[in-house]
Amino acid sequence: MVRWLPNLAGGWRGVELASRLADELAAPAYLMNDVRLAALGELRHGFGQQRRGASFVLVTLGTGVGGAVVVEGSLRLGFADAAGELGHLPIDPGGARCGCGQRGCLETVASAPALVGEATRMLLSGQSPGLAEELERRGRGETGADPGAGVDVEAIAAAAAAGDDAMGRCLDRCAEALATGLAQTVLLLMPDAILLGGGVAGIGEPLRARVERQLRARVTMVPVEQIEILLAPLGGRAGVLGGVALAAAGGEVRR
Hints:
alpha/beta, single chain, two-stranded antiparallel ribbon
């Protein structure tokens, strides 16, 4: 059952999607949160095969911020299969309203829409000449066009890599927010590794290094320097491979 899907227009609550699909297709249908599926893919075909029996947290940065937890080689879904909603960790109680109804959730700062929104505000206020140049280079800055049109994660990353200070600050803010949420996760779970996935993680090493640096600055009680901060090895393939693993297991995976 889809218990709640706030990032879908109109929101879904209590939708029996799997049974409907099974009826329509006359075939078994299984349902799992996309990030948990990606973690299952990494467990069965990616990082989990490189480090058998390891504990890791997968964080995906895209339309929202998602999470999944693997403990000692076992995917942990928790009660109501809801474990790992890292995007809704409160990091700023007075912050922006989240789609879930709360304020200051991690995904209000570290998701792709949040990053693009912040970059667009800087562009329109004249703080980011590098982003303006990048959009012009891509043919997205024509006279008369919406000056904020075409801003995306790739353009932000390119401008930051070219030395644009404003876009560098955008990435810093994203990494700081993510590290704040991950600090709580580390203190609770102490995993062997944290994997970064999703579209924003496509920024690559510039984001990974920022997150690692910020996380190590925020955690002193445990040996955080021993935790690997990695880009998810399977990238965008993880969810598909997780779906195959879920179907092969008849919809049942180890909790």
